[in-house]
Amino acid sequence: MKHILLIIALLLLPLSLFSQGDSIFFSNAIKINFKKYKKDSALAYRKGDTERGKFLFDSLVDHRLAGTTFDDYTFKKYGGGKIRLSSVEKPIVLITYASWCVPAPGEIPAINKLAQQYGKDVKFIVLFWNRRQDMRKAARKFNGRITVCYAHESYKNDAPIVASMKHTLGFPTSFYLDENLKVIDIRRDSKCLAPKKSNYNKGYAMNYDSVREGLSQLLIDRQVAKEHLAGN
């Protein structure tokens, strides 16, 4: 117990260097003591201690990254053009993938279903860590409610995006942002299962429930904010 409290204290301490009124961006917050987190997390997974690995990730999100302001990145859209996050003007679910990472059975259909259900109120963006020509097949699996984008080290202006997102938390990772780009939650929603047909329904349900849980918190926070403004 003392060890767990020490880890949380170390995560919280760097943020105390900022005054309460200051805004801290996600890309700055993720750098604080990140080498230690990465070392401890890698050690946990090497030992097969997934519970500790999850604890370290959740602690990082809950005590350092949640509440920060996500950087106003501009992504290249697979279908052409670009999208700047601040132009969306509604909550965002941003999911990162790579074409060489095989999704769990039912994972993409679950995301497509959620985008159909909540697409009017929430913007769904899928970001691939690929060159455009390398993610064509994967991009076509997502429905029209989802804006599919890509970023890669070889493209001009993508280096900050890759450094703060891909090279830190890895993928697949989901970012839940409110309409002001405040980080509400960051989750590893993907629930990996062996690629067997019998696992499709289970994979669909697990991934649907996981993303919907993060989405629900995003929408609840939005409603609370609206009620607060109406009360004033």
TrEMBL record:
Gene3D superfamilies: Glutaredoxin (3.40.30.10). One of its GO terms (molecular function) is oxidoreductase activity. Residues 64-220 form the Thioredoxin domain. It comes from the Bacteria. This is Thiol-disulfide oxidoreductase.
